[in-house]
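PROTEIN FOLDING TASK:
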Amino acid sequence: MSDQTTTSVRARPEAIKAVPVRHPGRWVAIAGLAVLAAMFIHLLVTNDRFNWRFIFVSIGNGKRGVMFTGPVLEGLRGTILLTVLAMLIGVGLGIVVAIMRLSPNPVLSWVAWLYTWVFRAVPRLVLAILFGNLGILWERIGFGLPFDRQIGALFGIHDLNAQFFSIKATDLLSGFVAGVLALGLSEAAYMAEIVRAGIQSVDPGQAEAASALGMSGGRVLRRIVLPQAMRVIVPPTGNETIAMVKDTSLVAFVPVTYELFFQLEAISSRTFIVLPVLVAACLWYLILCSVLMVVQFFVERHFGRGYGAAARAKVRLRAIAAEQGGALPPEEGAVK
C-alpha cells in the first residue's frame, strides 16, 4: 500500500480594493467658507470707513492711534484691575458660599441658597447701577457698635456715636468700588455653584476615609477634596474669568472713568467717530480674552494630570504588574 501525500494549497485572497468614502458636502462647505472669508478680508481691506489709520496710527494733531492713547491705556489697566479684584472676591466668597450650601446646618444652607438666588437673578448692569446709587441710603458708613444711636436713645443719650471709623457713603459706594462690589458679589453666586459641583464630583468615600484617619473637616477639604475638585472647577472658572473681562464694560454706566470702554466712548463722543472706536474696543477685548484662553489651557492641563486615556493605561499597567508580582513582561514593560 503506497503512501499518498495530498497537499492542499489554500488560494491566496485577492487584494482588497478599498474605495475611500466621498464627502462632497465637506467640499461644498469648505468652498462656501472660503468665499465668505475672502469677502470678509476684502471688506476689511477695501472699506475706508474702518479708518485703520485712526485706530492704529494717529487720531490727529500728532497723537497716537485710538488704541494706544494715554486715556485708553489707563482704561485698559483699570479693566485688568477690575477683573482681578472682582474675580478674587467672586472666587473667595464663592468657596465660602458653596461650603455653606453643603453644610448640614439648615440655616447656613438656606442663607447660601438665598444669596445665590438673588445675585444670579439680577442682571449685572442693574447691580452696577444700583451699587453706584447706594450712597442715597446712608449719610456715612462706618464700623463700630451696631444700633449705637438707638441704644443711646434708650438711656437718654441722643448724640451717642460708637463708630470707630466712618466714611461718607457717596465717596465709598460710587465709581470704582461700586463696580468692583457689584461684579464681585454677582460672580460669587456663580462661583458658589461651580465650586459646589466640583466638591460633589469627588467620591464622598475619600472624605470619610480621611475623617476616619483623624483629619479635621477643614483639612479634609483643603488636602483631599479641593485638589481633586479643581479638575472640575478650573474650566468653568476660566470661562467666568473671560466673561468677567467683557462684563467690566458694564461699569461704564456707574460710571467708572478708569475703564477701557468708558475711555473709548469718551473719544467717540469728542471726535464723532463711532465705528473705528468700537473696532478698537473689540480688538482690545479680543487680545485680553485670547491671553486668558492660553492661560486657561495650561492651568487645565496642570490640574488634569492623572486623567484621560494615557493615565488609565498607566493604571492598567500598574494593575498587571501587581498581579504578576511587581514585574511587567518585557513586551508590556516597554509600553509607555
Observations:
- The CA atoms of residues 104 and 110 lie 10 Å apart.
- The first strand starts at residue 140 and ends at 144.
- Residues 331-336 have pLDDT under 50 and may be disordered.
- The beta strands are 140-144, 163-168.
